Amino acid sequence: MSTPLKDLLRTSDLSKSDIQMLLETAGKFAKKPLQAKKTLAKRTVAIYMTKSSTRTRLASESAVAHLGGTPIFMRADDLQIGRGESIADTAKVISGFCSALIVRTFAQSDVDELGKYASIPVINALTDDDHPTQLLADWLTITERFGKSFKNRKFVYVGDGNNVANAWLIMGATMGAHVVVATPQGKWAPKAAVVNQANEIAKKSGGKIEILTDPKSAAKGASAIYTDVWMSMGDSEADRNEKISALTPFSVTRELMNLTAKDSIFMHCLPAHRGEEVAADVIDGEQSVVWRQAFHRRTTIQSLLYHLTRGELKGNK
Ligand code: CP
Ligand code: NVA
């Protein structure tokens, strides 16, 4: 028997059957949040963040509490890591106290290193390159709306080719869906390595990846339009003006939504900037599912903690 998946370091760590199981359990936690309230009884989960968070922090702390455990929230300044203690030593020490570590930081390599040295499950709660827990909430929202068959549906991300765009490509490819990412050409397009990886996954899953530079042709007939902030945490302020003018044609307006399928939804991981990446009448309008996505951050992180700590995910290896 193969060894179970220990960590969720990257969206690409998950197999389609892992995702399906996670979403199914999350659906149950949506209806009955306390149905597994002894899973982490008398245990602790470390949550370490070096970037801001509203949803992921609230969702993670609530998820741990609903599983009967106690979250321990820490910023870099609270730990000796802020004074130069190594990632490896920190990982080993946290493993001696806690049953899992949820981490949000800049470099993906730091999360990978925590995973390498921790004996407990490590969960990526956002890096510069990826946002796997967000995509679980997003795909639960998508399946609630459209069911489990994605045939003849196209799921479109428009805007900055950032961490969320990367995760959108990988998760959609894994699910065997037709996913599109439309960004400006060049600097703010998704990296070739991510696009290649998504294409490799899609080849096996029956999915389809399209990388476009025209938001209108991307939006045509889409079942979902997803966008994210134009300036992510850690982005260089020196790029702001150039980036915003490159991204302005990718703003999700009512006109863009009018090109989509009749039953289409608008998605955003939040936080949002109305008047920049999305118009207020879109995000606050009838097609918007952003509050459902935010709600499912807790149900999916709860499901992830439940299955990871029980060694029930298979992974892709
Ligand atoms: N969507 C998301 O990750 O939100 P926070 O940055 O508030 O956690
Ligand atoms: N791309 C954004 C997502 C925030 C949830 C960022 O990294 O800041």
From TrEMBL:
InterPro entries: Asp/Orn_carbamoyltranf_P-bd, Asp/Orn_carbamoylTrfase, Asp/Orn_carbamoylTrfase_sf, Asp_carbamoyltransf_Asp/Orn-bd, Orn/put_carbamltrans
Domain Aspartate/ornithine carbamoyltransferase Asp/Orn-binding: 152-307
Molecular function (Gene Ontology), one example: amino acid binding
Name of a matching Pfam family: OTCace
Aspartate/ornithine carbamoyltransferase carbamoyl-P binding domain: residues covered: 6-144
UniProt keyword annotation of Transferase present: yes
Keyword entries, A-Z: Transferase
GO biological process: citrulline biosynthetic process; L-arginine biosynthetic process via ornithine
SUPFAM superfamilies cross-referenced by the UniProt entry: Aspartate/ornithine carbamoyltransferase
The protein's Enzyme Commission number: 2.1.3.3
PANTHER family linked: ORNITHINE CARBAMOYLTRANSFERASE, MITOCHONDRIAL, ORNITHINE TRANSCARBAMYLASE, MITOCHONDRIAL
Family assignment from sequence similarity: Belongs to the aspartate/ornithine carbamoyltransferase superfamily.
Descriptive protein name: Ornithine carbamoyltransferase
Taxonomy of the source species: Bacteria, Bacillati, Actinomycetota, Actinomycetes, Candidatus Nanopelagicales
